[in-house]
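To: structure subgroup
Subject: Chain for Friday's discussion

All,

I'm putting the inputs and outputs inline so they're searchable in the archive.
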Amino acid sequence: MTDRSPRLSANNAKRTRTRARLTEAALRLMSERGINATSVSEIAAEAELANGTFYLYFRDKAEIVAAVCQAVTQAMHDDMSSTRLSLEDGAARVAFGTQQFIEIAAAEPVWGRLLASAFTEFEAFKEDVAHYMRLDVALGIEQGRFGEPLDEFVIDAHLAILRAGVLARLAGAGPDVSARAAEYQLRILGMSVAEAHAVRSENERKSGAPAKKSNARQRQALPSA
């Protein structure tokens, strides 16, 4: 038993490294070309692995796309979660989450390009992004802050604004884009122009900046996927 344990540990470490090579290769290629234009064979080649090796770690392309997108979105939410959860107002949470999502995607352009592609090319990704949004909108409705119901049309509208904000920032637009996106989100939910602006401005006053900076800049590797 004692002789086998080091071998098992070494095998597990090797599997972890190989899986990471595949997911990081997928992230690079999909961010450059888009999800639909990236094949399994190209991911394996980018990772410098045999094509068959891919299938020892992932069933198919959809599984690795899901793993990569979930790792990125989880890292983004982890980056902002402590501040987001400290906000008691559902409207403030919606505005903060919108601004931070766009600003982190702009600061991590490889992530941003992947997410922009995933919005339109990978349907399952939408629910990963919408999960926390649903919670924050539901809180705002419970508090009487929002007059619109939480339905799929509202969620789709929110996601469209997020994608537009990410693309604009990646194209060189300034951080005012994320602030405007936050206000648009609140207006979709029934707040007036003045109310939406007040919520966004109060968030910025508390944080001392248009959007709180991501805790980790220029990550070179994908979070554990």
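Points worth raising on Friday:
The mean pLDDT is 87.
The two ends are 30 Å apart (CA to CA).

D.
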